[in-house]
Specification:
Riboflavin_Biosynth_HTPR, 26% helix, Dihydrofolate Reductase, subunit A, alpha/beta, 185 residues, 10 strands, globular
Length: 185
C-alpha cells in the first residue's frame, strides 16, 4: 500500500501560506532543490487544490526555459511523469499532461488510490491537506521550515487536530532551511 505524504515549505511559526508576502528565504538554492527532488522522485501521484495546481503547473514547461540548470530540468521531468489530480469546483480545464479534475475530495476514493498504488502519493496545499488529515489518510509529513516568522496566514497543520508523530529524519541547510520528516504513529 502506498503512503500519502503531506509536504510544504512552512514559516518558522507554522504557516504554509503567509497572509502577506512570501514565506521567506531558504528554499530556492540548488542544494535544497536537488534534495526536494530526490525526496519526492518516488511520488507518482500529486493531489492538488486549484491554487496549488496553478502554482505547480509551471513545471510542465520549466525544462524549456532558456539556460535552465540540470536540477531544474530533472525536477520538471519528474513532475511531468507523475499523475496529477486537481480538486476544484471552479477550474474548467488543466494545462498539463497526466492531469484530471475531481470536483470534490472523496476520502474513500483516496483510500482506494493508496491501496491500489505501487508508488507513494503526495497531498499539497493546506486546505486539501486539512481534509486528508481529518480523514486519517496522511501517513507522513515533510516540513521545510524557513527562517522567517510571518505572523499569520494558512497554517501547515489545521486547527483542532492532534497528531502523535515520530521523527524519521532531519536535515539543516546552509541557507537556514530545516527539513523535518515525521511519520504517524
Amino acid at each position: 500500500m502506498a503512503k500519502l505524504i503531506y509536504s510544504m515549505i512552512t514559516s518558522l511559526d507554522g504557516y504554509a501560506e503567509a497572509a502577506e508576502g512570501d514565506l521567506g528565504r531558504g528554499a530556492g538554492d540548488e542544494e535544497v532543490h536537488t534534495f526536494i527532488g530526490d525526496v519526492f522522485r518516488p511520488v507518482k501521484t500529486f493531489l492538488y487544490g486549484r491554487r496549488m495546481y496553478e502554482t505547480m503547473v509551471f513545471w510542465e514547461t520549466a525544462h524549456a526555459e532558456p539556460d535552465v540548470p540540470p536540477y531544474i530540468v530533472q525536477y520538471a521531468r519528474d513532475w511531468q511523469a507523475a499523475d496529477k489530480i486537481v480538486y476544484s469546483t471552479t477550474l474548467e480545464s488543466v494545462s498539463s499532461e497526466r492531469t484530471r479534475i475531481e470536483r470534490s475530495f472523496d476520502p474513500d476514493a483516496v483510500r482506494r488510490l493508496k491501496e491500489e498504488s505501487e508508488h507513494d502519493l503526495s497531498v499539497d496545499g493546506p486546505n486539501l491537506a486539512a481534509q486528508a488529515i481529518a480523514a486519517g489518510l496522511v501517513d507522513e509529513y515533510h516540513l521545510f521550515v524557513t527562517t522567517s516568522v510571518v505572523g499569520g496566514g494558512k497554517r501547515f497543520f489545521p486547527d483542532g487536530v492532534r497528531l502523535d508523530l515520530d521523527l524519521v529524519d532531519q536535515r539543516s541547510f546552509p541557507s537556514g532551511l530545516i527539513y523535518a520528516h515525521y511519520r504517524t504513529r
